[in-house]
Design brief:
mainly alpha, 134 residues, rod-shaped
Length: 134
């Protein structure tokens, strides 16, 4: 009878060991995480154009695109490479959420940053405003 109790205790110990081995959670190696660093999403000119082309975007998003455009996207030296930049001006002026004050502000700010393209900026702005009327 004593050997039955011994086998029973041995069986319980083996079950405990097996459950500990099987269900033991392995800890992931810890790596330092920097919460202070905010990773900025890198915006492209295409992203700015997408915001302007969508009718459902907020006026605040449109104003943000203007800030990004004047600080991070200076017009290129070659006029052939500036087509996307002129598209930005056109769609900014064409967007129904852009007010007249905002369009004039866009034209002044982009012209001050890119004086070489002042005439083209004004032309594409006028095209965008005309497209709004249709």
């Amino acid at each position: 009878m004593l050997y039955l109790i011994g086998f029973f205790l041995l069986f319980i110990i083996i079950l405990i060991v097996i459950t500990l081995v099987v269900f033991k959670k392995s800890k992931a190696p810890s790596c330092p995480v920097d919460f202070d660093e905010k990773k900025e999403k890198t915006l492209s000119l295409d992203d700015l154009l997408k915001v302007l082309k969508t009718q459902k975007s907020d006026r605040s998003k449109i104003e943000e695109t203007l800030e990004v455009m004047k600080t991070k996207f200076p017009f290129p030296e070659n006029e052939k490479d500036a087509n996307q930049y002129f598209e930005y001006v056109y769609f900014f002026a064409k967007n129904p959420l852009s007010t007249a004050k905002l369009i004039v502000q866009m034209q002044k700010e982009l012209t001050s940053v890119n004086p070489k393209y002042a005439k083209q900026i004004e032309d594409f702005q006028m095209r965008g405003v005309e497209a709004r009327k249709k």
